[in-house]
Prior knowledge:
By secondary structure, this protein is of the alpha/beta class. The protein is built from 18 helices and 5 strands. The chain has helices spanning 6-9, 11-22, 27-39, 44-64, 70-88, 114-125, 139-149, 164-176, 193-197, 207-215, 228-231, 239-245, 247-261, 270-293, 296-312, 320-330, 335-350, 352-358; strands at 101-107, 129-137, 153-157, 181-184, 202-203. Strands 2-1-3-4-5 form a 5-stranded parallel sheet, with helices on both faces. Helix 6 runs parallel beside helix 10 (207-215) and helix 16 (320-330) packs antiparallel against helix 17. The longest helix is centred in the last third of the chain and has 24 residues, at 270-293.
Amino acid sequence: MSTSTPLLEHPARSAELLWNVVSVADEHAATELVLRLLDEGADPESVLLDVIAVVQGRVGEEWAAARLSVAQEHAATAINDRAVAALSVHPAARTTVTRGRITVACVDGEWHGLPARLLAEVLKLRGWRVDYLGAQVPTPHLIAHLHSTRADAVALSSSIATRLPTAHAAITACQAVGVPVLVGGAAFGPDGRYATLLGADIWAPDARAAADLLAGRTLPLPETDHQQFDDLPHLSDQEYTVVTRSSASLVQSVCTALEDAFPAMRAYSAAQRERTAEDIAHIVEFLATSLYLDDDELFTWFITWTARILVARGVPARSLPPALELLARDLKDFPRAVRILRAGTHTLTTDPFTAAGNTA
């Protein structure tokens, strides 16, 4: 069996080949390529992280740029997941358990399961006994599992920032039963700032770093009397609670008033109106999460990202500032909400790309 081939020497080339077949939904060719790499002596961890994970990142980028449809993105992700499954049962990936037991799961409401799956497989390769629970794991079920398995640690994944309040509850619940928590995923910010804010024991930027951190230290037992409110005392003003509970009425109010604030909406088709309502619902959801964290930057990042997505799809972003103004009007008695919305409007009108989109 060869130990040195062009594919092994150049993971980027392997990733390009995998992308070529994943992007056209050729599951057979994708799995065959991954198995070929392993047969020729490729390191399974490198195939997971330098090939499959790289391709999955490109899937997300292509979707954001409107070069992949939602259906194509789902198909590509499913093929990558099946490639991981094929790798996991290959003889090259068989390892002996030499470390403790760890549970890997996505927080409740998080349906991007592939990043957690990649971490689970890397940890298995590093000698951990891993219980991979998959996407959207309700916190009570997670805690029941920890009780029954006596796991040494739990790794929680979240890609969507709006799942952070749920992640916070899961972190606190795991720590309350004496299990330390490692977190990762895009939701926690590029520098892990939200992991620290929400009281996680460890944050890692990716699966390789997570495995390295777990190998290099013994996790201390967490304080079992830690409360969520201890991390976020600003929640006492109830703004997060009010916005969350009134989200449906806020969306309806903005959609109704937006026709006057943005007259072009009067010519929208039923499908366009439905998409607009969905966009406003996402804005309200990110506003609520920003209130939970008391973080303007999360909202300004999201509103800028939304504007770029709209422009990439040929939709003018100039409807966003009026929508934010209408929300600020409806929430005029909530100073933190108004502050965050004003920050979003300022970003839209000063960022060169979004400002250009507003005039499209």
